[in-house]
Amino acid sequence: EGNIAGWSGGGLALVDSGAAVFGCDIVDNGPVQAGGGGVYVTGGAPTFENVRISENEAVEDYGEGRAGGMLLNATDASFTNLVIRDNSSWGVFGADGGGVVIEGVGSPAFVNVVIEGNTTLDEGGGLYVWSGTPTFRYSDIYGNTPDDVVGIDDPTGADGNIAVEPDFFDSSLHLASTSPLVDAGDPAVLDPDGSPSDIGLFGGPSAGDRDLDGDGWSQWWLPGAYDAATSPTGDCDDAD
Predict the structure, then answer these.
(1) In CA terms, which of 49, 92, 99, 231 is 20 to 30 Å from 125?
(2) CB count, 10 Å around CB of 74?
(3) For residues 109 and 75, is the Cβ–Cβ distance under 8 A?
(4) Single pTM value for the model
């Protein structure tokens, strides 16, 4: 949180890496030039699971801004149960890819991911694909400015992908109990209680394993308000 870089990767930069990034918040990083205000990945095949990438910024004071949230270059990285939200890219001569920019020869894979509320000046508010063959399954790309997807056919309507308001319950990005993302994830991936996985940060088998404050009590994951009866071992406030 709160980091900057002179070049790509304000929060995290992975080069030819097989790292496993789990249960992290990568937030409020940047401004960074050249792209990837939050995350920059080039080469390799790292895995990201139950990660929030939000409020990061890429700015070019002499060119075009790119990839406020994440820049992926020639990588086969995989992303499961992420929320990529409220990132932005700006530049003196324009900008693209507020949320994610994908380039180079690679096949990054997205499953149960939310890309929502990201902003750029020109194109690809949510996702801009210059090259590569990314895949999206059971993901929600919605409400990005000025558009959701540029460079590939919009994946909405195929492979379980949707475009709906996520309906988050709180700033920690728990889903409301009425969210259309509840039980809407990959049916082959189950939540900790054995139900179909939710799309977003608190879905999948590791949804209940995030412990950002390190107190040994994992953050509650069920949609809706914290309930001690249904989450007796869950942390009602993972910031404390």
Answers:
(1) 49
(2) 18
(3) no
(4) 0.96
